[in-house]
Write a structure and sequence with these properties.
alpha+beta; 120 residues; elongated; 30% helix; three-stranded antiparallel beta sheet; four-stranded antiparallel beta sheet
């Protein structure tokens, strides 16, 4: 066994680890995040990728607690969409970008009650 073989093995292991980590961080950088909140009797939706890029033209679907679609829309160039809710109760907001990128957010009746209390 030559003196350089352990160094080559360590270098190979380091290179392999670096490659794996770069692929993992690349996948995470494209994860989709959805943030929703209630303010002044409106629901505000913001979609973005983990790297900070805004989700433009993302398909937003709002479903009630029975899984029925109650409204839909698209995010703007800043990744935002807002709407007047058809009711103030439990709902799920889905953001669909493509087959590999989507996110969802649960709003509850309590979120609406908390928002109403903040405006009083």
């Amino acid at each position: 066994m030559s003196k350089t073989q352990p160094i080559r093995q360590a270098a190979f292991l380091l290179a392999t680890t670096m490659l794996f980590l770069s692929l993992a961080s690349s996948a995470l950088a494209h994860a989709t995040t959805l943030w929703c909140y209630v303010e002044n009797n409106r629901v505000y939706v913001e979609g973005f990728f983990m790297g900070g890029k805004k989700v433009q033209n993302g398909h937003v679907v709002v479903v009630n607690d029975k899984g029925e679609k109650v409204l839909e829309g698209k995010t703007d160039k800043e990744g935002k969409f807002d709407f007047e809710p058809p009711y103030q109760g439990d709902m799920t907001i889905l953001l669909k970008v493509d087959q590999a990128h989507d996110a969802d957010f649960e709003l509850t009746e309590q979120d609406f009650l908390d928002a109403a209390a903040e405006t009083e």
